[in-house]
Structure formats: structure tokens, C-alpha cells
Amino acid sequence: MIELWGEAVRSIEERVKPANRDQWLRPIECLAISDGHIRLRAPNRYHKEWFEDNFLPSILENLRIRAQRSFAVEFEVPEESPMPAKTPDAVGESLGDVAAWRPTPAGLDSRYTFESFVVGARNQFGHAAARMVASSPGSKYNPLFLYGGVGLGKTHLLHAIGHEIHRQHPDWKITVVTCEQFVTHFIRSMMMNQRRQPSSVSLMEEFRSFYRETPDVLLIDDIQFLANKDSTQDEFFHTFNALHLAQKQIVLTCDKLPAELPGVEERLQSRFAWGLIAEIGHPDLETRVAILKRKAEREKMALSDEVALAVATVIRSNVRELEGALLQLSARSSITGRSIDKKFADEVLQDLVSATPQGFSIEAIQREVATYFDIKLHDLRGPKRLQSVARPRMIAMYLARKLTGSSFPEIGGRFGGKDHSTVISAVKKIENLLAQDPNLRSVVSTLESHLRQR
Ligand code: ADP
Ligand code: MG
Question: pTM (2 decimals)?
């Protein structure tokens, strides 16, 4: 059985740069495979976290296809090595480019300003909170925690705060990073630290000063990415405390409420809720129309009220998809030379909804399943284990996999940060049950047909 692991690893190795292969893949040792369980050994926990994020999902997917079953993974990490093991010199050479790696502090997106943000009923509070924090950073609402589903404008507001503070305090240092960059930066600093001469400044010191001492404002996007990354959470805890104590403004965005963040330590969850929490909701029809009109204006695209209304009526899931639809209209109109009237728009929309997987967002599936079983969306995504919730959740995961083709970790993330192995076993379980249970088959096909009619 162990060979199976080797084969799966080899099949992804081709797509991995040799340096990464030697540094990250090879040191992972497979101790045992049996009965849907795999036991792996990683040299240290940083290595484990990195491997889990970057390689494990595709290896597991590959294994699943080879073995026709899914596997749950367990790691063994030697206790006595809290610090990374020394990397051999030959491997170290190839890390040269990594040593100087930093997230770009000047990473504010020029498109994401308050001026370009359309305010509607569901994002009004988040917008007002962001404005308030931008006009008096560090003083009152610290941290500001913006949360909501994908494509609803969280990143936009985060950057808008950055731009506004920069306008008022041009000499302040504004650090904007995604949580993923923070994690990467931290893990790399940990790993590389070992390779420095003792006399040179430690990379960990550099890292700490970058986040804890130098910023006047720290903007971190998609904080849910901290889930299950224990060592990074520990580091972030200290970063948070240092900045908070110094009354430096912290703004965080997230796809859920602090208390709903599984795999995030309680002491962090509670700190996230110290300041102000604001939800960014789904835009209503009126706001969707306003957003379309605003975007069209910026792109100098002729968009009648009638067409804007047609698009906003069909595309309901989020702002990013609205932008996508607008882009399609404009691209197809310039290719075909047709003007963007209602008839043309209807044709394009028809295509968009039926031909692309966009018609099936994980979000839409969750809503449909929650409505069908009459349970709260919040419970469907949350950790409750009650049978009445657990079964619909598995069905929703199954449908998400089938209809959106999203990866297991991605689906897990949208169900309250569940582990990809949980998703894999849910999908498998429903697949098995479908083969035996005609009732379940009819439930699932009803759900699918509702979704197709949306
Ligand atoms: P999130 O971070 O919540 O996933 P983004 O901030 O990336 O979403 O928003 C997705 C896209 O939609 C971006 O291009 C953003 O500019 C746009 N957008 C979102 N909300 C609004 C809004 N209220 N007004 C104008 N554009 C918006
Ligand atoms: Mg975002």
C-alpha cells in the first residue's frame, strides 16, 4: 500500500519545481496506509502546515482516483523539533530567491477606493464603519472586523481604508497583506532563519519588526486562512497584541464571524471581536443595478437601465459575478458588432447562466439546501453534529463538488473551515447512499432541478 503514496507523490512531482520538490515533498515520509487512513511524518510543524496547504490536496485527489476511495490523513511531527530542521546546503542554494521575499507593503489596489464603492442597504453599516476607522484610525474601533461572503466587497473596503488613511497621513506606514501572505512570510522566515550566519540579523526579527513595530496600520485580508495553522496563529496573536497595545489600527476581513471560525484559537477569536464587527451582505436588486451602472460608466460602456435591470435580476450571487457579466456583454458586443440592447443581453445572460459553472455557486447550493430542509444557513455551514443538520450538510457538500467542481479544501472552507478530509468523506458517503436509497435520490434530483432553474 505504501507504494500507492509514492506513486501519487511522483505524479504531482512533475508539476513542482525541483527546488520545491526537494525541500517540501521529499522530506514527507509515509509511515502507513490502511483502511482509508494515512499516517505521514513531517520534519516539523511548519513543514507540515506548508505541505498541507500546498501539496496535500492534489496528492489526496490523485490517491482517491488511484485507490477509488478517500483517505483521512494524520501527521506525526517530532516533539523535540519546535524549530525547523537544518536544510542541507544543496537545497539551501535554491532558496536564495526566497530569502529576500516580502509581501509588498505598497500593495493597495488603486481601483478599490471609497469613491468607487456603491453603498446599498446591505453594506451600509460596513461602509460607515470603514469610513469611521479611516478617519480616526487606532482610536475607537480596533480591530475593525469586516465579514461576509465572497465577492461582496470586503477587499474593496479594506483597501479603501488604506487609501483614505494614506491621503490623510502620507507619512504613515500602511501594511496590507492577505492572510495567506502573512502565513507564507512567517513560515519562510522560520525556515530560512536556520540558514543565516549567527551574526546577521535574524529573519524572524525582521519578520517581527515588519509586522509588530513598523506599521501604523495593519490591513489583513481573509483572516479565515489562519484556520488550523497553529504556529502562525501563535505568531499572529503576538503581532495583534503588540499593535493593539500601541493603538495602531488593525482591520481584518473574513468570510465568517469570529466565533464561527473553526480551527482558530479562542484567544484570537475573542480579540477579533474586541472592536467593531460589521457584516457586508448580499447586494439587493437596487444596489446591483447601481453597481452595474457605476461600472459601465467607468468603462465608458453604454448600458441602458433596461439592460442593467435584466443583468441585475439574473445575476444575484455577488458583485464579482456582476462584473463578469458586464465584461461578457462588452466583449461579445465588440466581437459581434451588435449593440447592447435587451435582446442581446438576454441571449448573453442565457449563455452565462446555463453554460458556466457560475450558475452554481457553493453559496447558492447552501441556500437551496438550507431552504429545502428548513434549517438555518448558519447551522448548515457550522459545526453542529445533529443528524438533522449533518445529513443536509453532507448533501450540500456533495452537490457543491458535483455542480461547481470546486476543490475539497475550497468546499471545506465554505462550510466553516472544515477539513478537506471531512468533505471527501461526506461526498463519498452520499455517493454510496445514493446507490441504495431511492428517497435520497429523489431529494438530490429535486434540489438539482431547483438549482438549475434559478
Ligand atoms: P470580497 O473581498 O468580499 O470577496 P471584493 O472586494 O474582491 O470581494 O469585490 C469583488 C469585486 O466587486 C471587486 O472588483 C469590487 O471592486 C467589486 N465590488 C464589490 N462591492 C462593491 C460595491 N459595493 N461597489 C462597487 N464595487 C464593488
Ligand atoms: Mg477578498
Answer: 0.65
